[in-house]
Structures are given as C-alpha cells and as structure tokens.
Amino acid sequence: MDDQKVYANLSPFVSVAWLLDLLDPMDLKPNLTHVLTDAAPLTRSRLGVSSNQLPYSPKGATFPHGSFLLAIPRKKTGILDDVRSSGWLDAMKSSSPTHNKVSKDICLGIASSDADAAYSTWLLKYPSALASFEQIANCAKGKRIALFLDYDGTLSPIVENPDCAFMSDNMRAAVRKVAEYFPTAIISGRSCDKVYEFVGVRELYYAGSHGMDIRGPLRESVSDNHLDSINSFDKKGNEVNLFQPAAEFLPMIDEVLGLLKECTKDIEGASVENNKFCVSVHYRNVAEASWDIVGQRVYDVLKDYPCLRVTHGRKVLEVRPVIDWNKGKAVTFLLESLGLNDGDDVLAIYVGDDRTDEDAFKVLREVNKGCGILVSPAPKESSAIYSLRDPSEVMEFLTSLAIWKSSIQAR
Ligand SMILES: O=P(O)(O)OC[C@H]1O[C@H](O[C@H]2O[C@H](CO)[C@@H](O)[C@H](O)[C@H]2O)[C@H](O)[C@@H](O)[C@@H]1O
Questions:
Q1: Core vs surface per residue 53-92: b (16+ CB within 10 A) or e
Q2: Beta bridge partners of 347
Q3: What interface predicted TM-score (ipTM) does this complex get?
Q4: Ligand 1 neighbours by CB, cut-off 6 Å
Q5: pTM above threshold 0.90
C-alpha cells in the first residue's frame, strides 16, 4: 500500500498528534507502517517504529537482523527487562504465587482470619468499587465516561487451559448493556481475534496483543483534529478500524513463536500461545521445580532477539516487541480517538487484574482523568484506586453502572 493511498483512507481513529508521532525524524515522511491492515507486513529497511516509541535511545549495537537498521544498546541486565537479567526466576515466582504459602498457613491454623484481616486492611487503601459506588457515581455525574476492561481474570475466571477461558453469558450481557451507555473497550494480552471470539460483542473496541492491535466499530468523526486509521474488514466481513504500532515485528514474532514452541515441547505442561504481536509461554501446568527450565529456554531464545522483551503475567511469560507501547498507551490512544482526551469532563474507568494493567492504572492516575480498579482476591500493591474481588464483582459493578446511567437518563 503506498503512502498516498494510506492518507486517503485516514478516518477519525487517529489524531494529528498521533500522526506526528509516526513522522520519521530522518526524512520527515510519515512512517505509516504503524497503521497497517492485516495484510502481509511490509519489508522495510527501517524498523517501523519511531524512535520515541522505543524505550531507550537508538545508540549502541545494531539489531542482528539485517533489515532493521535501528540500533539498540545491548545491555544484558537492567533495562532489557527481567528475563534478560538474572532475576527472571524470582519474577516468575512473584508474579505467580502458588498456594503453598496459604497451605502452610492453614497447617499453622492462621489462614482465614489473618487473610481476612489483611484483606480488610488492604481495602482501606484500595476500597471496594462496589462499596464506593455512590462516590464513583457522584464523581461521574455530568462527565463523559469511557470504560476499559481487561479480559482474563477480569471478565473471565482464571482457568488451567487458556483456550477454555470463557466468559459467562451473564457477564456478556452485562458488558453489552454497559456498552449501550458508554464507549467500552476490551484491552487484552490475547490476540484481537481470540478475545473477540471470547467476548463476541460487536459494538466494542478491542485492543489485543497488549494494545498493539486496536480495532473498533466504525464511527462518525468525533472531533475535527481526528484523522482516520485504516478501514479494513474482519474475518466475517465487518468493516473495522485498525491501529497496529508493531506491525513490522510480525515476521520476527512468528519466527520466535516457532522457536519457543520447539524448545518447550519437551517440558511437561508448558504451552505456547500465539497472540499475534506477542507470544505467551504458559507455565501454569508445569511443576514448579521446572519453572526455571521454562525461563531459561525463553531466555536462551531471546538472546538473539534484542528487540523483543518479556513481561510477567499470571504463570505466563509474555514475549513482545520492545516498542514503548502498552495497555496504558492504548488507553491514551483510544481516549484521544474518541475525542475524550481534552477537558475536565471525562472519567475513564479501567478494570484489570494483571501486572500489565498497571500501565493503564498509572496513566489514569497521571492524567487525573479517571480511576483504575484492580481485580484481586488478595492484597497487592497497585496504581489502581479501587478494587473488586473477582469477575463476579466486576459483573455486579458493570450492571450497577448501567442501571445508574439509565436512571439518570430517565429523569
Ligand atoms: O490481558 P489479559 O486479557 O489479562 O491476558 C493476559 C494473559 O491471559 C491469558 O493467560 C491467563 O489466563 C489463562 C486462562 O485463565 C490462564 O490459564 C493463564 O495462566 C493466565 O496467565 C492468556 O492465555 C495469555 O495469552 C494472556 O497474555
């Protein structure tokens, strides 16, 4: 697709600011490979990522892959994320607490009352969004609300088999209802296609691959300074908008997906999931004694891919491009695309359970435009403001929001 054709297709999903972000300072021509359809990725001599989307300055060694001329420092520890440092096993353990601690406490007879007391104390810092609903509603009065929902552990319970993380019909109905009143997006580490398959509500925005694959229902232009992203068609022929800031990583991700599958196939219980712009290496069903083998194998593969990094989720290692893009950036992008980035009359609510959701909680805190709600049955440090215990409380919260809004409209 040539650049002119891309311009011609621009529609209200991308703002001028975002387009400026895509400008390549080397030649001041828009680097429009950020905004691609699902078509085969372009092979370019320069990585399709503007330098300000990379987490560190492009000085130092070059990428090992000939076509990528951007340079990157080849530090083995620190900024290249936990798996590249020696702390990856600790990170795997701390992001994936097992039940051993609880069982030990039960044996000592101190489990439930102490756990309850700890949770109650924690609630003072992260009050329940249900108990605080009136406060949230008061704050939302007269404001334009946007809703962002993580999928796994938020809309669906955590289960052993990632392919079976179905959400209930009641949850689907609650999401559909609340989306009638507020623009609603699902922000997930899963691929867009997979999370859409699970949720199945057309009227939503979907940001898969940790926000690296954004699609939404077609809308009228919401603000004069909003340009369009590419219009494309999903598998069922529906027209959708797309924003894919890591499109040029696709061949590399595919390559690494194959390598990770190959090198973990002998580890009992390990599985590798294709999340399109990211790869998940699951160790939920691996004996804890073998977690280090999983980490080591992933680490060994990534040694040759300095432009990929790993983040830690719930018993999962998530391999993704090093670009400075995460769920927080996706929220900012969507708010801007919806014309909700200006003014004091916006309240964004983000509900999520995972470490990767913290980026979004932080953004909302920083811009003071809303609040994060952490879904957790146990005390956890977070940048969220409120908490909910589990997906069933999330459903109750969404239902309350819809009822509250409809009661206001009925007045
Ligand atoms: O951003 P999310 O929607 O929360 O996705 C994060 C990861 O979620 C999935 O894995 C997690 O849920 C699985 C099903 O309950 C569970 O088996 C696994 O242990 C969890 O880590 C998904 O499979 C991953 O690809 C996502 O990255």
A1: bbeeeeeeeebeeeebeeebeeeeeeebbbbbbeebbebb
A2: 145
A3: 0.99
A4: 150-153, 158-160, 162, 165, 188-190, 273, 275, 280, 282, 284, 313-316, 318, 354, 356
A5: no
